[in-house]
């Protein structure tokens, strides 16, 4: 009678060890799966949100004042104001613009049409900073002066928005669906990326 009982206890011990090892393995699988899921999720976000689209620098006040140089035509002024309005409305007023003296943003227009790496340069947006604080911005448009429009989409101020967003420290995107794609696309993009809007809304209320 003793021997069968010890055999039964041996089976119970073996089963218990097997169960512990099984649960330990299962736990490792779950942890690895969670880690893999996190990596895939972050990877998807990194893919859909271009690393160049960031807010490394910030304006410390709103609204931003702007002014135009004497060389800018009424058409350019209207399209730029249109771009200001779109960005202000899309962010529900998180970023705002007003024309005035002592401007934060200066829009300058040129009659020449420079080229870079075989491409015509339609506009250029830049900013100056002190540390991470943006202290001024410049937007330049080229091939201006004969009353015609030479850049971007006539139905939507894509070039104007693109250059404006550069003054918020957004860089170029490799996504063709982005307003920050490095070349114009014949009206293919007629909206500002939701990601960009979300970042502006998140970042600027505390700086109003």
Summarize the structure.
This protein has 208 residues and is an alpha/beta fold.
3D architecture notes:
The chain is of the alpha/beta class and 208 residues long. It folds into 2 domains: 1-48; 64-207, Collagenase (Catalytic Domain) (3-Layer(aba) Sandwich). Helices cover 40% and strands 16% of the residues. It has 4 helices and 7 strands. The strands form 2 sheets. The protein has a 5-stranded mixed sheet, covered by helices on one side. Strands 4-5 form a two-stranded antiparallel ribbon. Strand 1 (64-68), helix 2 (74-90) and strand 2 (97-99) form a beta-alpha-beta unit. The longest helix has 47 residues, at 2-48. The chain is elongated, with a radius of gyration of 28 Å.
Helical amount = 25-40%
Distance between the termini: 86 Å
* Number of beta-strand segments: 7
Secondary-structure element series:
HEHEEEEEEHH
Structural class, by secondary structure, is alpha/beta
Shape: elongated
């Amino acid at each position: 009678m003793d021997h069968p009982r010890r055999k039964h206890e041996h089976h119970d011990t073996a089963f218990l060890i097997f169960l512990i090892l099984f649960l330990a393995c299962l736990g490792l699988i779950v942890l690895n799966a969670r880690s893999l899921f996190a990596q895939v999720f972050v990877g998807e976000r990194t893919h859909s949100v271009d690393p160049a689209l960031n807010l490394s620098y910030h304006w410390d006040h709103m609204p931003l004042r702007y002014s135009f140089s004497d060389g800018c035509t009424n058409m350019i002024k209207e399209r730029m104001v249109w771009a200001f309005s779109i960005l202000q409305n899309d962010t529900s007023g998180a970023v705002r613009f007003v024309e005035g003296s002592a401007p934060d943003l200066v829009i300058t227009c040129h009659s020449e049409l420079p080229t870079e790496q075989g491409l015509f340069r339609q506009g250029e947006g830049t900013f100056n900073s002190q540390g991470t604080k943006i202290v001024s911005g410049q937007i330049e448009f080229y091939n201006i002066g004969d009353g015609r429009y030479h850049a971007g989409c006539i139905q939507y101020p894509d070039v104007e928005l693109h250059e404006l967003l550069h003054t918020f420290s957004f860089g170029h995107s490799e996504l063709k669906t982005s307003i920050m794609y490095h070349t114009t696309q014949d009206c293919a993009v007629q909206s500002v990326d939701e990601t960009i809007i979300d970042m502006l809304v998140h970042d600027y209320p505390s700086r109003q």
